[in-house]
Design a protein that fits this description.
By secondary structure, the protein is α/β, with parallel strands linked by helices. It folds into two domains: about 120 residues, Response regulator (Rossmann fold, 3-Layer(aba) Sandwich), CATH 3.40.50.2300; about 100 residues, Arc Repressor Mutant, subunit A, CATH 1.10.10. About 40% of the residues lie in helices and about 20% in strands. The protein is built from eight helices and eleven strands. Helix 3 links the parallel strand 3 and strand 4. Helix 4 packs parallel to helix 8, helix 6 crosses helix 8 and helix 7 packs across helix 8. The relative contact order is 0.10.
């Protein structure tokens, strides 16, 4: 993790926004404060953040809309802060590409730890396609996971969008082929726990991954569901 990394804090409540911003500055981050989606878009025109901390409940434009728009613009880790959002809203946020969330009011030390963890996972040395060690490449259906560069590539070598939590789930499967992994274990390995609805949180991420790697996401052959137990990665696809 590089010192002075830029974090955007998006929250319509000035007191909460300032508190988070001041705390992150105390710990060496540069911070841009935004009071909503419009301010975030203006800030993005000036500089790209390393991470975004985003309030899910804002009056003019809700955080779900902001997450959707942000993830279409660039691949940046997003931590949602949720005060009154339902589990459905939180799962929708994860489905749209958010990497993690915390309930408000949050413990600032925990927020800092989550930020640092996401940034560590997001940092990967730049490496042209095709130059990685073969041991770092794992085929997942129609795509190839580059463990060294933390990216997913298609058959042409082009990078495919992949969130930090998606990468960590794929790495967990790569490290444990043909082994049933429970949802609880997968979320431990991915570092993305959802204490109220963790079963659904991992299911959402698996659904997103299947859309990217499976020839037919409705009939998955590579990441199989094991009813009542979890999921299993089949490197050669489902047989028979």
């Amino acid at each position: 993790m590089n010192p002075g990394q830029l974090v955007f804090v998006v929250d319509d409540e000035a007191a909460a926004r300032d508190m988070v911003g001041d705390y992150l500055k105390m710990h060496g981050f540069r911070v841009t404060l935004c009071d909503g989606g419009a301010a975030l878009r203006r800030a993005l025109e000036e500089e790209r953040p390393a991470l975004v901390v985003l309030d899910l409940n804002m009056p003019e434009e809700d955080g779900l809309s902001v997450v959707r728009d942000l993830k279409q613009r660039l691949a940046v880790p997003v931590i949602m802060l949720t005060a009154t959002a339902s589990p459905d809203d939180r799962v929708t946020g994860l489905d749209l590409g958010a990497d993690d969330y915390l309930a408000k009011p949050c413990e600032l030390r925990e927020l800092l730890a989550r930020i640092r963890a996401l940034l560590r996972r997001a940092v990967a040395p730049p490496r042209p396609a095709g130059t990685g060690d073969a041991r770092d490449l794992v085929r997942f259906g129609t795509k190839m996971l580059d463990l060294g560069a933390h990216v997913l590539r298609d058959e042409t070598g082009a990078e495919m969008p992949l969130t930090s939590s998606e990468f960590n789930l794929l790495k967990a499967f790569a490290d444990n082929p043909r082994r049933v992994l429970s949802r609880d274990r997968l979320l431990d390995l991915a570092g993305a726990r959802d204490p109220e609805a963790y079963d659904r949180a991992v299911d959402v991420r698996i659904t997103r991954i299947r859309r990217k790697i499976e020839p037919d996401a409705e009939a998955p052959a590579y990441i199989r569901t094991v009813r009542g137990a979890g999921y299993m990665f089949m490197p050669e696809g489902e047989k028979g």
